[in-house]
Amino acid sequence: xxxxxxxxxxxxxxxxxxxxxxxxxxxxxxxxxxxxxxxxxxxxxxxxxxxxxxxxxxxxxxxxxxxxxxxxxxxxxxxxxxxxxxxxxxxxxxxxxxxxxxxxxxxxxxxxxxxxxxxxxxxxxxxxxxxxxxxxxxxxxxxxxxxxxxxxxxxxxxxxxxxxxxxxxxxxxxxxxxxxxxxxxxxxxxxxxxxxxxxxxxxxxxxxxxxxxxxxxxxxxxxxxxxxxxxxxxxxxxxxxxxxxxxxxxxxxxxxxxxxxxxxxxxxxxxxxxxx
Length: 276
Ligand SMILES: [Zn+2]
Description:
Blueprint: E1 12-14, E2 17-20, E3 26-30, H1 39-42, H2 59-62, E4 72-76, H3 122-150, E5 154-162, E6 177-180, H4 189-200, E7 207-209, H5 217-222, E8 229-237, H6 252-274
Parallel strand pairs: 3-4, 3-5, 5-8, 6-7
Antiparallel strand pairs: 1-2, 2-4, 6-8
The protein binds zinc ion.
């Protein structure tokens, strides 16, 4: 099934992802935008979950400029309720001691049980890992290797969005833009500064670096710098570009207001990679 968010045909269509190849030193990953749900899974889910409220909605539209920039774009097709592509494959917690959702989530962000008749067992989790998690990560690794053969350094931008208020996970309202570099471990500090320069120069959006969200598994496992890949995650709150209540409509005026800043950040990242 073609992905509803992207008008152009993918270079690689796989049940788990769509891949749009470019040749610049920028790769953008969108692991939580998928809304696919296998029918047998949908039939087992709590009906309250079927609105897929925890999706990172509309990111391909908000970032609609990245392909023109020559970036490579990897877009997940399946809901994070199938499996969370931004969690380690062994299910280890990203934020020990804090509330977070797991590799195969059993609750929504608001604490509703996903499986009224009991959660998936280990065998089912292993099966989903092979069917959905591994292909996405194999594509990601393959593309990073392809781009590294073209460029001495490559930037991996992991794109996310989240409801602005979620009391189970954080107090009050998140800053609008939450940049994560695994506390500086995922990329060179000069990349962080290049990306933040346009953010520091504006006052429309609040922001933080390595606050509540520091970068998930994709940022932490691919961006170690030494291999020439430098990763950064942007978790942004949704109400700066969409309606946070169902049916989660894109607010075009807000998205249009946000887009130039995002574009400046990604252009800065691409320029930084080119200068390396
Ligand atoms: Zn996300």
